């Protein structure tokens, strides 16, 4: 007998929190060490290694960008739970196969295929967005984010230890196992009261935006999500290689890289819910702009770091900024989007995020290969400045404050 005192959307939130945690932990357990794993597959010069690392990182997001709108349309017809299961089971299989890669091109291809089945976190946001009361949206989205971020916090540390002791393949097998657990959590504990889109109803992008009053606000959030992802993922192909350079190839590079990769998560997991609640009270626009400005202030001095400790401190600070970015854009879209098209809007958002996660690492790979690893941080600072301009201009043209939207 179910406890009527606890609404189903809260039960779903905690089940999906675990799924987000498993996804974040599994992915981050293996991703920071991907360049080091690739380096074991051949004797590559620096430019070739950074290129392969960029392709391996970007491949999953490229395919994700292509297929996300299709999955979003299907979700509005079949429900979000089937899409969650599709993503979890697909990543269970593809992550395991990645660990079995015998050469770099097999790895890149499997990563590309994995992207076609990914999207668990995006669908978790969409399901909760369709159910959560408006007054709880900021806090709930912030809490849901802590699941993913909490996983990203412990994943690199565990993955760094396992990689250092057992080699780089085991973290990928662990990723597959974590997604298997996410599949079980979703299957048994998520219940969705879903009303499908009427048969024959239009499901294109114009129809998805039809019921949205402040379209520019939503587009601003989607573009901002893309630029945030470009900035935050740009370091992924080079983080372990940069740490190796700072450590002069001495010491446990894999474990240290894992700690450096995890540090933003420590800050984000504590800040996300608080900033979400603060956004519910003062309006998301102020939180978003403050987060973007703080990002630029923190990314720029990374260019000058000479020790792992300096890099770690700045990485920790960037985690505070991260807590004010993607969760806030998700909150605004939740407030603005009618439930009948929420999956499509979130899928378009995921496509743009994925495009950012393609462009960021590939640009970073090119910059690192031609110049040096640290120039990636200058590039990232420029991306954040562009993001600030996009958000400010969009709101000026829309003649509406997000604060007003949240109270409407």
UniProtKB/TrEMBL annotation:
Main location, first listed in the record: membrane
Cell compartment(s), UniProt: Cell membrane
GO cellular component term of the entry, any: plasma membrane
GO molecular function (one): transmembrane transporter activity
Entry annotated with the keyword Calcium: no
Classification via SUPFAM superfamilies: MFS general substrate transporter (SSF103473)
Gene3D superfamilies registered for this protein in UniProt: MFS general substrate transporter like domains, Multidrug resistance protein D
Xref: Pfam families: MFS_1 (PF07690)
Membrane topology: Multi-pass membrane protein
Keywords from the UniProt entry: Cell membrane, Membrane, Transmembrane, Transmembrane helix, Transport
Listed transmembrane segments: 12-38, 50-72, 84-113, 170-190, 217-241, 253-275, 287-310, 316-333, 354-371, 377-395
Residue ranges of domain Major facilitator superfamily (MFS) profile in the record: 12-399
Descriptive protein name: Major facilitator superfamily transporter
Source organism of this protein record: Lentilactobacillus parakefiri
Lineage: Bacteria, Bacillati, Bacillota, Bacilli, Lactobacillales
């Amino acid at each position: 007998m179910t406890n009527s005192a606890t609404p189903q959307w809260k039960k779903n939130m905690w089940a999906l929190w675990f799924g987000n945690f498993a996804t974040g932990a599994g992915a981050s357990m293996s991703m920071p060490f991907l360049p080091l794993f690739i380096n074991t597959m051949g004797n590559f010069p620096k430019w070739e290694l950074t290129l392969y690392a960029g392709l391996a990182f970007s491949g999953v997001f490229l395919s994700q960008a292509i297929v996300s709108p299709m999955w979003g349309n299907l979700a509005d017809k079949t429900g979000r739970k089937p899409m969650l299961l599709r993503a979890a089971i697909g990543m269970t299989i593809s992550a395991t196969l990645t660990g079995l890669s015998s050469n770099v091109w097999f790895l890149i291809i499997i990563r590309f295929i994995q992207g076609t089945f990914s999207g668990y976190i995006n669908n978790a946001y969409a399901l909760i967005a369709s159910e959560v009361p408006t007054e709880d949206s900021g806090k709930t989205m912030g809490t849901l984010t802590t699941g993913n971020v909490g996983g990203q916090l412990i994943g690199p540390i565990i993955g760094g230890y396992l990689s250092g002791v057992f080699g780089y393949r085991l973290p990928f097998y662990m990723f597959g196992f974590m997604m298997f657990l996410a599949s079980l959590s979703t299957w048994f504990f998520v219940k969705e009261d879903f009303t499908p889109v009427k048969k024959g109803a239009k499901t294109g992008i114009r129809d998805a935006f039809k019921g949205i009053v402040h379209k520019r606000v939503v587009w601003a959030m989607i573009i901002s999500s893309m630029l945030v992802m470009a900035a935050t993922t740009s370091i992924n192909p080079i983080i372990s290689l940069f740490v190796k350079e700072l450590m002069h190839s001495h010491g446990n590079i894999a474990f240290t890289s894992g700690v450096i990769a995890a540090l933003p998560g420590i800050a984000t997991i504590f800040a996300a819910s608080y900033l979400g609640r603060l956004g519910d009270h003062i309006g998301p626009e102020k939180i978003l702009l403050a987060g973007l400005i703080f990002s630029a202030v923190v990314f720029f001095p990374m260019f000058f770091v000479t020790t792992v400790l300096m890099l770690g401190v700045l990485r920790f600070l960037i985690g505070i900024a991260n807590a004010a970015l993607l969760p806030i854009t998700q909150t605004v879209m939740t407030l603005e989007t009618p439930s009948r098209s929420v999956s499509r809007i979130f899928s378009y958002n995921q496509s743009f995020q994925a495009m950012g996660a393609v462009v960021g690492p590939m640009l970073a790979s090119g910059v690192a290969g031609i110049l040096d690893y640290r120039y990636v941080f200058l590039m990232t600072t420029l991306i954040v400045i562009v993001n600030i301009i996009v958000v400010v201009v969009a709101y000026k043209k829309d003649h509406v404050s997000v604060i007003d939207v949240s109270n409407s």
